[in-house]
Amino acid sequence: ARRECRRQAEEAVAAIDMSGPPAIVLHQAGRHMLRFFLSDFGQRVFRICVAEADRFPELGCQFYESGPKIVEETLSGYFDLAIGRGELDVPDKRLAAHQFAELCKADLFPRLIFGVQARFSDDEIERVVAGAVAMFMARYGR
Predict the structure, then answer these.
(1) Among 29, 67, 108, 140, which is 20 to 30 Å from 131 by CA?
(2) b vs e for 18-45, b when ≥16 Cβ sit within 10 Å of the residue's Cβ?
(3) What is the reported pTM?
(4) What gap in Å lies between CA 129 and CA 45, rounded to an integer?
(5) How many other CB atoms sit within 10 Å of the CB of residue 110?
(6) Which 3 state secondary structure label does DSSP give 141?
(7) Rounded CA gap, 102 and 108, in Å?
(8) Residue 101 · residue 71 · CB < 8 Å
(9) Digit-coded pLDDT (tens) for 78-94
(10) What is the pLDDT of residues 4-21, one digit of tens each?
């Protein structure tokens, strides 16, 4: 699971032009993240790690290191570039990276984990990602 999470994260990073403007880069990153969060594999790994983290804390730590931590590091590195170009003003890059990831989960992820809905259309995914980017840029964009 750790290997697959890392592989998917690296694949997403490789597919995104990190020299692009924030709205475009964040949109691409958000789409990759949300599709992973909603995927069967992403859900299985998430459920196992959450269910077993008390008994096996190292499992939770490994999941964090191979998922959320990679997102944090990648986005923070991108924020450095965008800050340098005068496109973003992000005083706490770590917090901003996690905020963006959470914004990308809005509406759809809770419906999925609570069994309200199992599949989502491209339009639903696009709506959430576009909203996440707009809110992020309203706070951190220049």
Answers:
(1) 67
(2) eebebeebbbbbbbbbbbbbbeeebbeb
(3) 0.90
(4) 22
(5) 11
(6) strand
(7) 11
(8) yes
(9) 999 999 999 999 999 99
(10) 777 777 777 777 888 999
